[in-house]
Amino acid sequence: MTVPAIEADALGKRFGRRAAWALRDCSFRLPAGRVCAVVGPNGAGKSTLLALAAGLLGPTEGTVTVLGTDPATARPEVGFVDQDKPLYPQLTVAETLRMGADLNPGHWDERTAARVVAGGDLDPNRRIRSLSGGQRTRVALALALGKRPALLLLDEPMADLDPLARHELMGVLMGQAAAHGTTIVMSSHVVAELEDTCDHLLLIGGGRVRLAGDTDDLLAAHTRVTAPARTPLDPHTVVESRTTGRQLTALVRPAGPLPGDWRTGAPSLEELVLSYLRNPGAPDQAPPPDTTETAA
Amino acid sequence: MVDYRIDRHSGVATYVQIVQQTKQALRLGLLAPGDKLPTAREVVEATAVNPNTVLKAYRELEREGLVEARRGLGTFVRRSLGAAPADSPLRAELEQWAARAREAGLEREDVAALFTAVLETHYPAPAHPQMQTQAQRHRTRTHHPAPHTTSQGDPS
């Protein structure tokens, strides 16, 4: 059995003793080799979680293990792209890449880094400060990918890219996963974009993990149901239900076989995520950390 | 060589689209026995889909005996499908027929409807369930390639 990419146990973080918890009681296990989406409303704790895994923040309580060790020790094998894409503004693009090569002796992937930058028609002599947000994202991704990390942590990586660059760079990320088995964790608000790229989901809300697991398993555990209004849905767990006229539609986690006269269908990942986001009070389903190591 | 195109709004699972497009290429003779399928990396770089989706599609094609994975070398076509290569006499006849339909003033939709009607007469499709049970996770496995989309051309 391989070492999980990230394992969190009762992880919690608050900024200041009186402040509210940004993240609390967060337990999950992300198997290596997955492409994991981190979704949740603004302020849910996504960025805090990624910064904790990158070792840029220390936990207030609980633990997080990265590639089988603590985040600081794992750092040479972890690529992290912060939401703000911090780079040195006075360096040129070429100098930034040279810095990447110097900081990662022995495992710098020149070709991939150069290719990511070249895809954007970037003049290597331009200074970072003169680049647009999207161009800066490209350079930041080139640095992170050039490091050829075992784990890539990306906080809203696609937010300021145009649709073409988004598609191209998502393709590059998937190519890395295909060629090197890189584990990728990315937060995003564009759920539709994650549907085809991610095979694992971490849904965070109100500072806690609400859903965690391989998307195939999560989708299989939920069913979209249509039945006459006022049909009792128990004993099934109801994530969301709505009544329109004489008809009730719901998203449930079946506790057993469903009655034959209900019309049922499989939800899409987007439907699943939106149902949970719309219903912050819906029961969480975080499978115990030991049972997630399945599926190919 | 095949160039996969993923339609995210088709309602057809992505891996099924890859399977179908491969079969389409086999039917049209664009892929022949011995040809190599693109690597998972090539496909995901071009389409930005998860590598496992491509591998799942290739496994499905392998299970159907259409391709075989050779370790370290790639995935190769084992046998071809159907008897309608791109340059067959049947295709030439259909081309002529389509040209005549156009001369007769038929719109694209008219031709598609006509073709589908004839197709249905000679090749009745199996029943097409509207809603599926939860056990059938993957939507639209029973798909029929009726030409009712107007945006797509010939995969080549």
Automatic annotation (TrEMBL), chain A:
CDD domains: ABC_DR_subfamily_A
GO molecular function: ATP binding; ATP hydrolysis activity
InterPro entries assigned to the protein according to its UniProt record, in alphabetical order: AAA+_ATPase, ABC_transporter-like_ATP-bd, ABC_transporter-like_CS, ABC_Transporter_VariousFunc, P-loop_NTPase
Protein keywords: ATP-binding, Nucleotide-binding, Transport
Domain ABC transporter intervals: 6-231
PANTHER family membership: ABC TRANSPORTER ATP-BINDING PROTEIN ALBC-RELATED (PTHR42939:SF1)
Pfam family, one: ABC_tran
Name of the featured protein: ABC-2 type transport system ATP-binding protein
UniProt xrefs under PROSITE patterns: ABC_TRANSPORTER_1 (PS00211), ABC_TRANSPORTER_2 (PS50893)
Automatic annotation (TrEMBL), chain B:
Matches recorded under Pfam families: GntR
InterPro entries with a match to the protein in the record: Tscrpt_reg_HTH_GntR, WH-like_DNA-bd_sf, WH_DNA-bd_sf
Region of interest (Disordered), residue spans: 125-156
Keyword field contains Ion transport: no
Comp. bias intervals (Basic residues): 136-146
Domain HTH gntR-type, first and last residues per copy: 12-80
Keywords in alphabetical order: DNA-binding, Transcription, Transcription regulation
GO molecular function, one term: DNA-binding transcription factor activity
Record carries keyword Cell membrane: no
Protein name according to UniProt: GntR family transcriptional regulator
UniProt source species: Streptomyces calvus
Species classification: Bacteria, Bacillati, Actinomycetota, Actinomycetes, Kitasatosporales
